[in-house]
Known about the structure:
The protein has five helices and four strands, in the order βββαβαααα. The protein is of the alpha+beta class.
Amino acid sequence: MQAWRKCSSCKAGIGFSTQHWLCSVSTCNRKRTGFFFCSVGCWEMHLPTMRHREAWAVEKHGPTAEEWEHQQAQEASEPSTPVSQSSTSVSKSQPHTAAAAVRTRVAAPAATADDDLPRDILIVVSKLKKYIKARSGMNTSDTAMPVFSDYVRKLADMAIRNAGEDGRRTVLDRDLKGLM
């Protein structure tokens, strides 16, 4: 029997056009994870490690050999190379490079009204009080914590803006440098 996949538990081959099982939980079915099971017993073997709250085995049928070859050819023809950090730096003299096009595709985070944002304390109060006590011998009032959190929010907002201007959707340490 020719196999198009291997069972994620027992590593037995899953043949073309044969029955197999998937986990009902979406994180087990992502392209990078891609768990496939040759039997319900093999599916049950992954449950203790994944610790799903509610899951079931979903019965599927494998593709035919022709469908599989077509799918592989289609994936091979699609450009799926990740953009490296060095390719995203755009010089001011060449604003119309591929990296500039990548920057424009990154969507800015949805703007939210300040009233909709959580107003929780963003710092560990005991650790901040301990730091201030060790640094100066002073005590710290609990009424100062919302003010400290507001400063952290402002720093976070500036870092978010810097990451967005750089065409990224991840805030990095370098987005905070120069803000203090």
